[in-house]
Amino acid sequence: MADKPHMNLIFVGHVDHGKSTTVGRLLYESGAITDRDIQRYKELTQQFNRPTFEFAFVMDQLKEERERGITIDIAHKEFETSKYYFTIIDAPGHKDFVKNMITGASQADAAVLVCSVEEGIKPQTREHLILINVLGVKQLIVAINKMDVDGFKQAKYDTLKTELTALLKQLGFKLDNVPFIPYSALEGSNSGKKKSDKMSWYTGPTLMEALDLLKVPEKPTDKPLRLPIQDVFSISGFGTVPVGRVETGVLKIGDQVVVMPSGAKAEVKSIEMHHKQLQKAEPGDNIGFNIKGVEKKDMKRGDVVGPASNPPKVAAEFTAQMIVLHHQNVIAKGYTPVFHFHTAQLACTIVDILERKDPKTGQTAEKNPATIKTGDVAIVKIKPTKPLVVEKYSDFPQLGRFAVRDMGETVGAGVVLEVTPRA
Question: What residues does each domain of the chain span?
């Protein structure tokens, strides 16, 4: 697996449009799971009274997810195509679980938007697209699922493709390299290596072929190390093991690192990825690493590891460009929603609104407005309520973009322009 380039792939789209089933199908077609596994899942689906969910059950491993038939947390699974090996982030489409979806999207190199030809564009189809766009996911595959329901007819596909194309253009996506693929995840048409004879009107790639057309992003190995922590384990006889994804730089055994915001210093003793020992980890690698000198209680999800010689920035406050995606009324100074940065989730206060921009031209529309509302793009000054690692988007895009949530909804998203470091 390691000799193929690695990519992180996120599946997004509205609840029940077939994301988990699509992922299960790809794992099956690529040989990552066997006929026997699928038979076992099929028996489980009978038990839970969810026929046709056998492929979805591959990803939805929590008992509660199986009973409710929806995806709650982000599941990581791997498979390989002839060209790449992928770690899949299966993002929840259900709106209660969007915050998990944000954590996933901030790690993805490419996204597959799953949209059912039966249901068409739904609220989360749009919300997920806005998010992956603001969070900087540049590569997109549009997967038009459930073609079997209507007998694989071209007309419905054409209508949905036209509507999705208009939506993507409106949201600022570049469509030059975006394939629109008609397929059936449940039935397996156009999902694997060979084209389906049921849609002879379609001449483009299958879903799996489209994955091989993706480009591996440049690895920012020349930048200082930045590794946001996803989780921390204390393993007996082994010590503290943080888990996360290298965003920039290289982590090597023997490195002296610092954990911010706490400032705890540590030495890297070993690095592991998918149960294999590594000498070093590069951007895109999801790793666990054993460190000496820091206990589990001294670090948590949302902290960021960097070199002791060039620690990650802890912000006293920061200036950002933010788009208001959806807010019931208006946003004024003093508004304190939850901000989602890399793996951190934290309440932050908008202390000042410096300007409102025209979203179409990017020019200043108003200086120091009293309030901003849905659809506005604004430059705002933000103060975290607790210490938070934030970097300028231009220096470290992975640590400089965020989503804003309040009352169970995604209110906005944005990128960091300037950071005032904590004294």
Answer: 6-212, 227-307, 315-421
